[in-house]
């Protein structure tokens, strides 16, 4: 995600390589973008093209502390293909088709940054609000105060999943009276808790088994199972448990 107003700061892998005096191929093969302390990509993990924040990269190469990125949601945030699909509660390939489906209001036009299509969060939310059918509600407006007490969000999200295992983040946001991002995180944690309980009884559990037993979409079952196993392996190794909130959670 490119936070609002930071689109001019975006760097591609080739830009990082040039700054390090390397070719893009050499830079990538040596995994110089993964050395300790190097800023993480700002694009989603599944993105076809990884992007970085230029201010963070420049600080790293100057030997200065890497500044934190803004964390507050904004309607001006630019979402990549996977993040836009996540916000809409659909698979990325479905989001691709939304550009020209007949008898359907086209999705918002993309904003191209560093050669990669992005969509403004606010425009996606407006499109969802005008789109008829289940899962079209965008939840609370970005920047508004959430009505639901934080302590109540997790158990209510778990109950929503029990009632409707394939519920979208947008629909959950409307029911929980929270933002879509908060709903995404709550659903991811609720799925992770449910899968961990199943793993205690069945260490050989598969994503297909989760889909059959809990009713989650296969993509959600696969990501949640992977995160749960990574967390379990981290604990067994004596390290800090991996965060089981699934990035790219599609609600």
UniProtKB/TrEMBL annotation:
Biased composition (Low complexity): 131-152
Record's compositionally biased regions (Polar residues): 241-251
Region (Disordered): 21-44, 128-152, 228-251
Domain of life: Bacteria
Protein name, UniProt field: Uncharacterized protein
Provenance organism: Streptomyces aurantiacus JA 4570
């Amino acid at each position: 995600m490119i936070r609002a107003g930071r689109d001019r700061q975006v760097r591609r892998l080739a830009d990082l390589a040039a700054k390090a005096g390397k070719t893009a191929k050499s830079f990538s093969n040596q995994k110089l973008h993964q050395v300790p302390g190097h800023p993480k990509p700002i694009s989603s993990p599944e993105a076809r093209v990884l992007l970085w924040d230029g201010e963070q990269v420049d600080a790293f190469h100057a030997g200065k502390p890497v500044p934190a990125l803004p964390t507050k949601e904004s309607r001006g945030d630019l979402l990549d293909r996977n993040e836009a699909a996540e916000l809409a509660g659909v698979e990325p390939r479905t989001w691709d088709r939304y550009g020209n489906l007949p008898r359907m209001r086209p999705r918002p036009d993309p904003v191209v940054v560093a050669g990669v299509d992005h969509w403004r969060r606010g425009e996606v939310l407006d499109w969802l609000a005008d789109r008829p059918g289940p899962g079209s509600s965008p939840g609370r407006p970005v920047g508004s105060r959430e009505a639901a007490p934080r302590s109540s969000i997790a158990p209510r999200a778990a109950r929503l999943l029990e009632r409707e295992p394939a519920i979208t983040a947008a629909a959950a946001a409307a029911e929980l009276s929270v933002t879509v991002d908060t709903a995404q995180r709550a659903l991811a944690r609720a799925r992770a808790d449910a899968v961990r309980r199943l793993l205690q009884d069945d260490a050989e559990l598969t994503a297909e088994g989760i889909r059959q037993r809990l009713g989650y979409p296969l993509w959600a079952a696969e990501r949640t199972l992977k995160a749960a196993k990574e967390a379990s392996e981290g604990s067994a190794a004596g390290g800090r448990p991996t965060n089981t909130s699934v990035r790219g959670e599609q609600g």
